[in-house]
Amino acid sequence: MIKNSVFIFSTDLYSGKSLATFGIMQMIMKKKHCLAIFRPIIEESCYSVKDDHIYAVISHFQLKIFYEETFCFSRKEAIFLYKYGGNHRIYDHIFKKHKELEGSFDFVLVEGQDYYNDNRDIELNTEVAKHLQLPIILVMNGANKNIKTVYDHIRRQHVNFIILVINKTLIPFQLLQSYLTRYLPPEVVVFTVPPDDILDKPTIIEIQKEFDAKLIIGSKYDLNKISITYIISSFLYCNQSFPLSILNEDLLIITQGDRIDLILATLIANISSKYGHISALILTGSILPEETFLNIMKSVPNFIPILAGYCDTLETSQRVASIRTHCCSQNMVKLQHSINLFEEYVENPLLFEKITLKKYKYITPQIFHYNIVKQSKIAQKHIVLPEGNDERILLAASFFSKEGLGKITILGNPKKIMAKVNSLGISWEEERITILDPVSSNFYEDFYSTLYHLRKEKGLKLTEAKNLMLDISYFGTMMVYKGLADGMVSGAENTTASTIRPALQFIRTRTDINTVSSIFFMLLKDRVLVYGDCAIVPDPTAEQLADITIVSAKTAEDFGFEPKVALLSYSSGHSGSGKQVEKVRIATEIVKNRAPKLLVEGPIQYDAAVDPKVGKKKLPNSHVAGSANVFIFPELNTGNNTYKAVQRETKSLAIGPVIQGLNRPINDLSRGASVEDIYHTLLITSIQSIRN
What we know:
P-Actrans_bac; acyltransferase; Rossmann fold; cytoplasm; P_AcTrfase_dom1
């Protein structure tokens, strides 16, 4: 699958990140046509004045994107939010905007914010890349000696680091490569680019901006020339001859405006074919030649740009030497030269393959939430909520309907429910939310009659069926059975048994699964994991454990995972023995026989399942160890306590229990469920109904 975004950032000031940006845009443009640039965090000044770098990319590559679409926050805003705990706002907003761009363009190049010797900049960049799940291209200045430190930080963030570009380095590639192999994994491809005078030296227009100098002779089109070197001719004594021997191409002359002898020597040397062309002449100290002499200067053929500045000669020379140059929209020479350098030293087929290959280890909470909201909005499923007296249910239904994610039927007395809605000030979408009273419903007679015919062979009497159908769980489940709703969510007030019992009686299990079980989606800080079974089967047999494993992997797959399943135990591989370990071992073999393509490992301990180092040590030949994302617990006691411990200690969101194995989606809630829990369970139920 093609990945249509990449994230570029640097850990140094003046690393030459623009070279990589322009080069990659040019490379991708050869294969894709509709490209976008996205810089989530920009400088404060870019709100009032357009960021010249972004503008250069847009104009040079003729991108069909508005400038306002290319960023989210100023650096000051991002640092403030980051400092005071508003990280989620940063990442959520960036994530949504990036997804919008991904949906509209063939390829989005995402640029990290510039580095200002602040570790928060590195952390912000890696966090953004992680939340967007993009492969990272890191650009470093060749003078940086902290490659190992930077890599260690990136590795801890669990991001997909694919390419390192070391810019402005004179170290031979083979020597650098032998050094880097000590620290970098083999999948990281390294490229080196040598220093380059054309990119490193300022243009005349950059020098003019530095001093706010006035152009007294010449055209603005002459200001894109590059000054490779400069000479301070004012330091020559009046009786000294001009040192013509040092004149070369792209020389900048700095002199006071009253040194007519040096100005004339410069103009004459520039005309001569024996010497290189001079880039420009700067007149310092706010001193200008007489008007008559200026007119003579303007008439000289092959004239050069002449600037007048207010600083003295010494300050001018010092500031020229310290100018930090960059590729800008006004200098196509530098921009094109950076592309040429990239093509010469970096671009190759492997680079394109690394950038566009889909490779990420985890689904992040942002991506998980985005995907289930998107699918629910498209599906527009109808969910029944039996517990209409609970205000958490009413609030969750309000949020769900207000976002246009589907339709809701709430069971209960309409007058009482609406009185509660009004007293709480809940926003209510009447077109999307229906309130239905089972007692007075036109469906009641049909429902109890259907239940009687379905269960009479089990000894159910008609009067019992009538009474059962007054139970909101039975009524809601029958709505799903009859196709009047696509799924049901209950359990905020009722027990798990009350929610599941009607479903087991007439919704029943799928033909390919003998065991009804559950999973939780655990939304950790940087990834989403699947835990099962944590709510239904107290002590499963090996066959039941295999059932739970297979259906849990299928559920995970339905929600965008590439399942890697770990059947957990207190030992890994063949290191331990005992009844529980043997049960897990047998279950694993059953799974491998029934689902040979599924990546599964068991028995395995939790640390070996999640930690690559531990996994490699304990099970070196495993495809699951160290990277599992679906965890199957050997029995309910362990599963239920583990999910609650992880939820509380990491302050994570646990969505579930999500019931699996039924013909139609019926989902249970914890009695301590929050509004957010219920809202997410509605989303999950909607997507389950698509699959069913």
